[in-house]
Specification:
Helices cover about 70% and strands about 5% of the residues. It is mainly α.
């Protein structure tokens, strides 16, 4: 069975002009011709083209490719072994380069490293940068702020999605407790508050009970936080504040 130059170009992802050039320089001369004189390529020609393209991908000039393929002492398996070794070495170099680029990205990234589209996808209507200037003015000199900036600098979209999913699950948990009539100082509500504190410590900064209590108070005192939290259920911000306070007393009394 044989194939036309157009068919081979389609198989290999090269241009017809490239195959004509390979024929002209003797690198890949088709083994047959049609009655009309058109090039026809057989299986052996396709095998040689594959070898050519492997070496070209590795950066070998055409002259060196021809010398390698026409070496009478080399067999097809030797070429494959050589190409495998070269490709493996190249992959290792590229992986090292990718790691270096990732480190450079992390070093240059400040805060949430998301595009506007990704931020909207992860956080919905809430813009995490909306109050950035105010946050920096109020807490920019604190260890918690610096620690949070350092931790979140390398966070990806997937990391923020995971954190948001955890927050949503906690919100649903608090709402379910409210709807079940559980008091804010019940064991279940305090356990939810403790998980909330641990999530902050795990994802942002070391959050002790005193700081956690301050956060709970802010949920109620700052109407912006209250409005955002109470979207899930009216009164949720106050319920969370009370559960956080009860949990802090439980652990520090």
């Amino acid at each position: 069975m044989s194939w036309s130059v157009g068919q081979v170009a389609g198989f290999a992802g090269v241009t017809v002009r490239t195959l004509h050039h390979y024929d002209a320089i003797g690198l890949l001369v088709p083994s047959g011709r049609s009655h009309a004189g058109h090039r026809r390529y057989g299986d052996a020609d396709l095998d040689r083209l594959q070898q050519i393209l492997f070496y070209r991908e590795l950066g070998f000039p055409l002259e060196e490719v021809a010398a390698l393929l026409d070496d009478p002492d080399a067999d097809p398996r030797a070429h494959l072994r050589r190409q495998h070794e070269l490709l493996t070495a190249r992959i290792e170099r590229l992986q090292k380069m990718a790691a270096a680029v990732e480190q450079a990205m992390e070093a240059r990234t400040m805060g949430i490293n998301l595009t506007p589209e990704e931020k909207f996808e992860v956080f919905g209507d809430f813009d995490p940068d909306q109050y950035q200037e105010e946050v920096q003015e109020r807490w920019g000199d604190t260890d918690a702020y610096r620690q949070s900036r350092e931790r979140t600098a390398s966070y990806t979209k997937e990391d923020w999605q995971r954190i948001q999913d955890e927050a949503d699950e906690l919100t649903r948990r608090f709402v379910a407790l409210m709807e079940a009539g559980e008091p804010a100082d019940s064991e279940a509500a305090m356990d939810a508050a403790e998980d909330h504190r641990r999530g902050i410590s795990r994802n942002h900064y070391d959050c002790g009970y005193e700081m956690h209590t301050c956060l709970g108070e802010m949920y109620v005192d700052d109407k912006r936080f209250t409005r955002n939290i109470d979207q899930a259920k009216p009164g949720l911000a106050a319920y969370m504040r009370d559960a956080i306070l009860a949990n802090a007393v439980r652990h520090t009394a």
